[in-house]
Amino acid sequence: MEMDPTGGYDGDAAAILELTANLGKQLFPVGYESREYGLILVDEIGRFFHLHHTGAYFWGSGEYEAFAFFLGREDALDAEDFFV
User: Fold this and answer.
1) Distance between alpha carbon 34 and the CA centroid of its chain, in Å?
2) Is residue 49 exposed (0-12), middle (13-18) or buried (19+ Cβ within 10 Å)?
3) Which comes out higher in pLDDT, residue 43 or 32?
């Protein structure tokens, strides 16, 4: 995991804006995972999301839950479950 808010690809900004609108909360990129370069995002209430080329996923509330998801201890939930 790389903690770098500037990582990403063309089109990521539009995908982040779309996810922001669907969640009803502001998102901020805090890094990316280097296996497949999916962005790691945190929202204004501390929930972590993974923006992957296959979709957006919820990694948990708080950094400890997010890190556990990153380590593969649980399956990530679809971010759509958190849309407003």
Assistant:
1) 14
2) buried
3) 43
